[in-house]
Write a structure and sequence with these properties.
The chain is built from 8 helices and 14 strands. By secondary structure, it is an alpha/beta fold. It has one domain (about 10-260): Aldolase class I (TIM Barrel, Alpha-Beta Barrel), CATH 3.20.20. An 8-stranded mixed barrel has the order 3-4-5-10-11-12-13-14. A two-stranded antiparallel ribbon has the order 1-2. Strands 6-9 form a two-stranded parallel ribbon. The chain binds flavin mononucleotide.
Length: about 325
């Protein structure tokens, strides 16, 4: 029986055990998005966790939504991340930088440029967000043009190259939790009439193009992706075609041979039988971690095409709580 303490290889990373740290926004970067020495210290302190998935880092100016989040596109960003990656590697850890474009989950107060947020369509999420003036309504975004969507795909690929240049072991594409990529999935956030809206093959197009561009840029063995099917964070409602959408998306991603598929527990609570869950975020390593018999029907087609890398229910367990002492 495979144990949580057994080693595992994920893409190009040989991990000593199967705990990993969940991505968590820390809002400690400089005003220009450069990670601070404090960030290097924070991640270095956690290096013994093995695999650290970082806070979301914006791939462009318009990708930022929260105060003082790091970027990963300028040379100054790379220099900041390089200090951080060196500190993590010195501590024996592996670093995966999460690429997060927030789309409409942004407030002009929170960005240096103060521009209107961008999104698939001009539809506000209907939720508030934290700013220096307290919790404020998120304003209506403006819809991206097709040319801007194509440029955003390039931004993700550029950010991935910058992450590798900074010494990261890989990147995780954030396609979950109500941010830009998931906004394209949801008919209540995406009412486009072009090739990025409407039928499921159009609403998954941006996610797939980003995954392919990143994978082409740095290699599939360095590329992971996080999805959160069914999550309503950020005002998202994926609607009646959600199952069909993920049945299309997940096998298409599997074809790229990415290092891993990361599915937060918030998304799985509605999908997995209680007995299959450990209450923590789960990472599916190109395979369901639960036996497919425990998966509800919506998940059976498609997901088994991700080859199984680990046996048992927990090839890897990702946690946002402090589990540094868990081994004792
Ligand atoms: C303060 C905070 C910041 C977070 N920031 C991110 C983030 O930047 N990217 C992301 O994918 N998830 C983010 N999350 C979600 C976590 O990765 C995780 O899915 C969530 O905390 C549930 O995991 P748990 O069951 O281990 O607590 C954040 C969560 C918290 C509490």
């Amino acid at each position: 029986m495979t144990s949580i303490w057994d080693p595992i290889r994920i893409g190009n990373m040989a991990l000593e055990h199967r705990f990993a740290m969940a991505p968590m926004t820390r809002s400690r970067a400089g005003a220009d998005g450069t990670p601070s020495p404090l960030a290097a210290e924070y991640y270095a302190q956690r290096a013994s966790l093995g695999l650290l998935i970082t806070e979301g880092a914006q791939p462009s100016d318009d990708g930022q939504g929260y105060l003082n989040t790091p970027g990963i596109y300028t040379d100054a960003h790379v220099a900041g991340w390089r200090r951080l990656a060196q500190a993590v590697h010195t501590g024996g850890g592996h670093l995966v930088i999460q690429l997060m474009h927030v789309g409409r989950m942004s407030h002009p107060d929170n960005t240096p440029h103060h521009r209107q947020p961008v999104a698939p369509s001009a539809i506000a999420p209907g939720v508030k967000m934290f700013t220096a003036r307290g919790m404020l309504d998120i304003p209506e975004p403006r819809a991206l043009s097709v040319g801007e969507i194509e440029a955003t795909v390039h931004d993700f690929a550029h950010a991935a190259r910058q992450a590798i240049a900074a010494g990261a072991d890989g990147v995780e594409i954030h396609a979950a939790n109500g941010y830009l990529i998931q906004q394209f999935f949801a008919p209540n956030a995406n009412v486009r009439g072009d090739r990025y809206g409407g039928p499921t093959q159009n609403r998954t197009r941006f996610a797939f193009e980003v995954a392919r561009a990143v994978s082409d840029a740095i290699g599939p063995e360095r590329t992971g992706i996080r999805i959160s099917p069914g999550s309503t964070l950020g005002g998202i409602d994926e609607g009646p075609e959600a199952r069909a959408l993920y049945r299309r998306l997940v096998p298409a991603l599997a074809e790229l041979g990415l290092a891993y598929l990361h599915v937060p527990m918030v998304a799985m609570k509605s999908c997995l039988a209680r007995s299959a869950g450990c209450g923590r975020t789960r990472c599916w390593l190109r395979a369901p971690i639960a036996p497919s018999s425990l998966l509800p029907p919506m998940w059976r087609p498609g997901l088994p095409t991700w080859p199984r890398l680990g046996a048992g229910r927990s090839p890897i367990r990702i946690s946002s709580s402090d589990i540094g002492q868990a081994r004792r």
